[in-house]
Amino acid sequence: MSRSGEFEIIERLLAPLAGEGAFSLSDDAAVLPELSHGEAWVATKDAMVAGVHFLADDPPDLIARKLVRVNLSDLAAMGASPMGYLLAFALSPDCDDDWLEAFVAGLAEDQRIFGIALYGGDTVSTPGPVTLSLTALGRVERGRELRRNGARAGDAVYVSGSVGDAALGLKCLQEELAVSAGYRKTLVDRYRLPEARVRLGPALIGSATACQDVSDGLAADLGHIARRSGAGMEIEADLVPISQAARAAIAAGSGLETLPFTGGDDYELVFTAPVDAVLPDVGVPLTRIGRVVAGDGVRFMSRGGEISLRQAGWRHF
Ligand SMILES: Nc1ncnc2c1ncn2[C@@H]1O[C@H](COP(=O)(O)OP(=O)(O)OP(=O)(O)O)[C@@H](O)[C@H]1O
Ligand SMILES: Cc1ncc(C[n+]2csc(CCOP(=O)(O)O)c2C)c(N)n1
Ligand SMILES: [Mg+2]
Ligand SMILES: [Mg+2]
Ligand SMILES: [Mg+2]
């Protein structure tokens, strides 16, 4: 195994990713570019730990891209467009140069796709599992950001794309679920490389009354909108969009029927909007799954009865 030194990693691998104002990562901090008139910076941070958020033997380029995307997903949830990021990584003893080079290639690929640049970070060692943290920076028209607190009784509740694939993909990787090779690949790919709805979020400004991304689980994350808005929600479980691959996996396993509502790792957007709002078409399917009601809590209904969910979503503790 060969591992470059701390400063060689920064100069050889990370400096080529640096944005203007980051001085090729040669100084103590970066100077951020100016925004257009009327725009505000938006900042968010999510961390990922091997064995908790991804598997230690996942392809390193996809680990990097997932780290980028879970953060861009939070910017999208605010209606913000991505500009750049800062990266901290704590490398475990078994991250060699091959691992690092693949990781950095993943960063470069997503920088190209999303038009973002690296503005700084920190590189440290850990005797424990690989631990990554990324701070994403975006921009939004000042005062027009999407919040969790604007849902009103009578609004419709929508979700983008579909939910459940990633949680089922993780079950496949953990060999708790066996499905055909084609479906397995679809599900595993969505666990390892979520989409980030970077175009949808900003396009929802003007129609969504509240928005957030689905990281912990659909039920848990809808619960945040409900609580912050001082309202309740009734979700029609049979309307929740579930992919063909996920349906096949649910049928192949047992007791997985509600996993798409609670599994997490989807990185779709959930939002509320007045029933007569015109929704944007950015090529992402949007499905109406329920409505905001007076009261509190989120109820999942099917054929007139409430479905009980043991836990609404992921919790670290
Ligand atoms: N350690 C912390 N220090 C400061 N703010 C925090 C910390 N942890 C969470 N927050 C803030 O609390 C809010 C909710 O955090 P949370 O991580 O649950 O949101 P999220 O990123 O949307 O969800 P997820 O972490 O599941 O992707 C965010 O505004 C976040 O910035
Ligand atoms: C190996 C492995 N085991 C379990 C999970 C599930 N999981 C972990 S954290 C999280 C919520 C988002 O994280 P956070 O709230 O920290 O941003 C979810 C759904 C996973 N992704 N990988
Ligand atoms: Mg978070
Ligand atoms: Mg979020
Ligand atoms: Mg998040």
UniProtKB/TrEMBL annotation:
Keyword Magnesium recorded: yes
UniProt binding sites for substrate: H53, D265, W314
Flavoprotein found in the keyword field: no
Residues bound to Mg(2+) 4: D28, T44, D74
Group of enzyme by EC: transferase
Pathway terms, separated by semicolons: Cofactor biosynthesis; thiamine diphosphate biosynthesis; thiamine diphosphate from thiamine phosphate: step 1/1
Binding positions (Mg(2+) 3): D28, D74, D213
Biological process terms in GO annotation: thiamine biosynthetic process; thiamine diphosphate biosynthetic process
GO MF assignments: ATP binding; magnesium ion binding; thiamine-phosphate kinase activity
Residue stretches making up the PurM-like C-terminal domain: 152-299
Residues the record lists as binding ATP: G121, D122, R148, S215
Residues holding Mg(2+) 2: D46, D74
Sites where the protein binds Mg(2+) 1: D46, D122
Function of the molecule: Catalyzes the ATP-dependent phosphorylation of thiamine-monophosphate (TMP) to form thiamine-pyrophosphate (TPP), the active form of vitamin B1.
Family named by the database record: Belongs to the thiamine-monophosphate kinase family.
General remark: Reaction mechanism of ThiL seems to utilize a direct, inline transfer of the gamma-phosphate of ATP to TMP rather than a phosphorylated enzyme intermediate.
Protein name stated in the entry: Thiamine-monophosphate kinase
Organism: Minwuia thermotolerans
Gene: thiL
